[in-house]
Amino acid sequence: MHEGENSIENHQWKDEHAEKFVKSMEKQIKTRYEPFAKKITKIYEKYKVKEKPNIIDLACGPAFLLMEIQKKIPNASLLGIDSSEKMLSHAKLKIEQYGVQNIEFKQGMAESIPIEDDSISVVTCLNSFHDFQDPKKALSEVYRILKNEGILILKDKNPNYPKWKMKIHFYFLRFKMSKERSKRYYKSSHHWINPQELDKWMKELNFKVSFTSRSVDYIVVGQK
Ligand SMILES: C[S@@+](CC[C@H](N)C(=O)[O-])C[C@H]1O[C@@H](n2cnc3c(N)ncnc32)[C@H](O)[C@@H]1O
Q1: I need a labelling partner for 210 at 20 to 30 A (CA). Which of 42, 155, 156, 170 fits?
Q2: What are phi and psi of 107, to 5 degrees?
Q3: pLDDT at residue number 96
Q4: What is the 3-class SS of 141-155, one letter each residue?
């Protein structure tokens, strides 16, 4: 890693790239974000998160997940953090367009989350963990900001998923996103994070860990 590589300035999404991403994800609110928000709510209930939770969506992108979480856990205070100023301006536009209120945003890096220690009930992270420059550092940051018994709910792609099944998965994905984006996504699979490795990192940090996987995705819950 080069000096300065891990700074906010080096994590800006190019304007056109961010815009394409937002457009394509907006079509998937019902199929991608709503089911994950439902899953988050179930986990949240299972772990009996205390009254008036505060939830951070780390690397929130266009805030579609936050909007869905708000529908299901209306008493939560919600904050989206993302390194990209461009993406955050899309997020703010979207919540305005959808008439959503009470979601805050902060620009920041997952590797140095601009939040104080022991202050957050739930951190969610969707399909972004493999993008982080230093995912291990990001995990230690999540641990630092979580309250005692607070939880991390992380969903990402599983590099151990059989290649032939992955090909089928990505073939069908081209009908949800563009063919070009689905190909690019498939090619990115070499830097997806191995769940065994993730499990090891989390246990080293003292998280209590549980994994579930479905198709090419895994969901890991870590409790502080
Ligand atoms: C694939 S998008 C996913 C966005 C969102 N979670 C979703 O599912 O719609 C990845 C996001 O991670 C953000 N990102 C990448 N590296 C980051 C980092 N080190 N810290 C914070 N955000 C980061 C990008 O700006 C982008 O918005």
Answers
A1: 170
A2: -85, 135
A3: 97
A4: HHHHHEEEEEEEEEE
What digits encode the pLDDT tens for the residues 45-71? 999 887 789 999 999 999 999 999 999
Query: What CATH number does domain 8-159+194-223 carry, 3.40.50.150, 3.40.50.300, 3.40.50.9100, 3.40.980.10?
Result: 3.40.50.150
What is the C-alpha to C-alpha distance for residues 221 and 199, in angstroms, rounded to an integer? 10
Pocket of ligand 1 (CB under 6 A): 11, 13, 25, 59-62, 64-65, 82-84, 87, 109-111, 126-128, 131-133
Percent of the residues in the chain that have a pLDDT greater than 70, as a whole number? 90
Distance 13 CA to ligand 1 centre (A): 9
**59 C-alpha to ligand 1 centroid (Å):** 4
Least-confidence region, from 7-16, 42-51, 157-166:
7-16
Nearest-CA residue for ligand 1 atom 25 is 84
Q: Report the distance separating Cα 33 and Cα 9, nearest Å.
A: 28
State both tokens at 147: 């309250």
Atom of ligand 1 nearest to the CA of 64: 9
